C-alpha cells in the first residue's frame, strides 16, 4: 500500500474504474452471447438481440472499453451470421 496521499487516492480510483469496467465488459459479453444464441436457435427476436448487441458494442467503444475496429469486427460477424441464418 502506498504511503503518499495522492498514490493512495490513485489506488482507490483505479479499483473503482476496474470494477466499473469489469461490470460493463461482462454485460457486453452477455449481450453478444444472447445475440449468438438467438441466431443459433432461429428465434423470432434475433434481429432485436443483434441490434441490442450492436448498440452495446458502440457504447463500449465510446466508454473506451473496446477499440473501434474490434467492435466493428464483432458487429460485422454477428450481422453476417444473422444474414446467413435467415438465408
Write down the overall geometry. elongated
Element string (H = helix, E = strand): HHH
Helix vs. strand class = mainly alpha
The value of Rg in angstroms is 17 Å
Largest sheet, strands/sense/barrel? none
User: How much β-strand is present in the residues?
Assistant: under 5%
Number of helices: 3
- Mean pLDDT metric: 95
Quote the distance from N terminus to C terminus: 58 Å
| Unreliable spans | none
Helix-residue proportion = over 70%
Total beta-strand segments:
0
Briefly, what is this?
84% of the residues lie in helices and 0% in strands.
Structural commentary:
By secondary structure, the chain is mostly helical. The protein is 84% helix and 0% strand. The termini are far apart.
Quick tags:
mainly alpha, 3 helices
Topology:
Elements: H1 5-41, H2 46-62, H3 68-86
